[in-house]
Amino acid sequence: MKLYLKAALSCCLIFSACSSSVKDVADFNKWLNDPAHGCLKERFINGIHISAKYLPPSYMVLKDAARKAKGMPLSAKLMDSLQHKYDKVVTFMLTIGPQNKPGDTKKDNAPASIDYRGINDYGEYAKRFLEMNFGMDRYVSMYIDNAEYIPVLAVSENAYELSDDRNFILVFAPVSSKDDITKAKNYLFVYKDAFFDMGAVQLDFSGGDIAKANAITIAQ
Known about the structure:
- By secondary structure, the chain is of the alpha+beta class.
- The protein has one domain (about 20-220).
- It is built from 6 helices and 11 strands.
- Strands 2-3-4-8-7 form a 5-stranded antiparallel sheet.
- The model is unreliable at about 1-20 and about 105-110 (pLDDT under 50).
């Protein structure tokens, strides 16, 4: 009996150490952006900075609720409804931008915004605009424990040219009611670039890191 209690207490202590809470979207982003937590993976290729960030259900709930509430207190009903919406899907944010961060080597005369990189005329710009805004689901796939999934939703975040980067929200859903993609061992994010000569970019995420992110709660 004493051994059982000791084991149970140890499990509780481990869980407590691995889980934490956040108070708002900014606080959550700070946690997700910490390299030690394994939820943000990035590469620098051909003068381009590309990254993928895992967005846990509670993050999506908090962000969506803040938008819907419009400054009003968040109701328990709204939070529960949104939690049910995001609990069974896996969401990532793909970011593509110029390689111009401190310490990086930026190519001479490269345009600031990624939207114009390699563009020669308006026709090329219009084609890229349509492809990146409405067709990114054709260039991204997720291998969850080696099974391939394509996005059921791919949304471009409109930055109104306030940023040189482009962000895309990509949602992956199970193919059947018995398919639980939220508790896998490995998540391989694959972006097959068709715009910036980067080729196929692979970003690998650990199921353990995903589970830790899923355990984060929203402070009341």
